[in-house]
Design goal:
An 8-stranded mixed β-sheet has the order 12-11-13-10-14-15-9-16. The chain is built from 15 helices and 16 strands. It is 37% helix and 18% strand. By secondary structure, the protein is α/β, with parallel strands linked by helices.
């Protein structure tokens, strides 16, 4: 894998301030910022700082999904080497887990072992087997039962273990009830009833894509952190290290956060290709476009995002059929979706010669040299905040090249998407005294 985790000397002052911040009385910190500002970088350097202060402790990093976890685990291997955490015991001092796996394990430590979730109501549609969790359906934690059970254990004088040091990435996609539970744990720790934990939450409200989520104001209020960045309990990252100016500008047209703009790009990121929005006559024409780009740019990483698994599988088949007719070497098509395809751990990151197919939701937190957002006509497109947030997340995954595809043929609905995506871009352009054509190249047949 190519190394792309920044060295300490590559970080700017605001990034260093985030992970070096000392804990206050409330034991909680918040870092906010738009895409590409280095929030995921901060979580690892924060974990490293914790271990440098106390080698007997551990830090747990919570990621949004398995795909992001697999990428961050590769970061983890690199950062563990820098921290001389070479033995198996030492390596476990920085753990990377998804939220559901971590919380299920935490419940096990809270003397819940042996309780069947369906009978006791701790959380629905999950099994606990020997301290591990196995997802058997799309379940939701029963937060009221968890808080009640924890209170009962504390009241009975049971020894209840806290989480030590917890670092949450994509914190806006966790429910408010989780932060209320976290606040309860911190409060009990301050009373001396539990080990003393700490919590760092990295979040960007404009990138919320789940049904159960939290606003930045809710997170800060519950954790007793400043709602406005104060340089102590709440730090704000502003410099976008990922996108070119052209891509950042197009993505900003869909941000629901009025503070999100394209300022503070590093030197050299203001010159790039304008994103392209194109409607093709057939799906095969879209596939041909991706294949041509991949063959012409073998050293780049490519991400292809579709709204549904069936569309993703169909696109993979067409990509492979097309690539099988090309002379080698040809790029490898890798796909991930829950239940089939590669496991998240087997995905190759940071290497050219791969076309990575993901659902919209699985793309969260990732980045690629070139991004293709396909089959716009199959998305639920309207002027709602949900659509804008989804588009903002997808568009901001691209570092250098961004293409949006839609198909217009028999059997496909005429993309009302064009009205909305063009309309949102036009509103942003007029606000900034520009034209939509300054922000994206629009290619479609009337």
């Amino acid at each position: 894998m190519a190394t792309f985790f920044p060295q300490m000397e590559d970080l700017n002052d605001e990034q260093r301030a985030c992970f070096l911040q000392e804990l206050g009385e409330e034991r909680a910190l918040v870092t906010s910022g738009p895409p590409g500002t280095g929030k995921t970088v901060i979580v690892f350097y924060r974990a490293l700082k914790i271990l440098n202060m106390d080698r007997s402790t551990k830090a747990t990093i919570i990621m949004f999904n398995r795909v992001l976890q697999s990428l961050v685990e590769e970061f983890g291997d690199e950062i563990r080497e820098r921290a001389d955490l070479n033995t198996q015991k030492d390596k476990k001092k920085i753990q990377v887990k998804t939220f559901h796996v971590w919380l299920t394990g935490q419940l096990m430590h809270w003397t819940f072992k042996g309780f069947h979730p369906e009978k006791k109501g701790l959380f629905s549609r999950y099994e606990i087997v020997k301290g591990m969790s196995k997802e058997v359906g799309k379940g939701k934690f029963n937060w009221e039962s968890i808080r009640t059970r924890l209170s009962e254990e504390l009241k009975a004088g049971s020894k209840v273990r806290s989480w030590s040091h917890l670092i949450v990435d994509e914190g806006q996609d966790q429910p408010k009830a989780f932060y209320q539970l976290a606040r309860k744990v911190i409060r009990e720790a301050k009373k001396g009833n539990m080990e003393f934990p700490s919590l760092l939450v990295c979040a960007d409200e404009a990138q919320t894509i789940t049904e159960e989520n939290s606003t930045l104001e809710e997170i800060c209020s519950v954790l007793h952190c400043s709602i406005e960045p104060d340089g102590e309990t709440h730090h704000r990252l502003e410099e976008n290290f990922r996108n070119t100016l052209q891509i950042a500008r197009f993505a900003a047209a869909f941000s629901t956060d009025s503070s999100t703009d394209v300022a503070n790009l590093p030197d050299g990121r203001d010159k790039g290709e304008i994103p392209r929005v194109k409607r093709y006559d057939s799906l095969d024409d879209s596939v041909d476009s991706v294949v041509r780009y991949a063959l012409q740019n073998p050293n780049q990483t490519l991400g292809v995002f579709a709204p549904r698994i069936d569309l993703l599988k169909n696109y993979r088949q067409r990509l492979n059929d097309k690539l099988n007719r090309e002379k080698p070497p040809v790029p490898v098509v890798q796909i991930y979706y829950s239940g089939e395809g590669l496991s998240a751990e087997d995905l190759k990151w940071g290497e050219g010669g791969h076309i990575t197919l993901l659902t919209d939701k699985s793309s969260k937190g990732l980045e690629f040299d070139a991004v293709f957002v396909i089959q716009l006509e199959e998305r639920r497109v309207d002027a709602s905040a949900e659509f804008r947030k989804q588009m903002f997340v997808l568009l901001s995954r691209a570092r250098e090249i961004l293409n949006v595809h839609a198909i217009s043929n028999e059997g496909s609905p005429e993309p009302g998407a064009w009205t909305e995506i063009y309309g949102e871009t036009k509103k942003y352009a007029e606000k900034n005294e520009m034209k939509p054509e300054d922000i994206a190249v629009w290619e479609w047949k009337e």
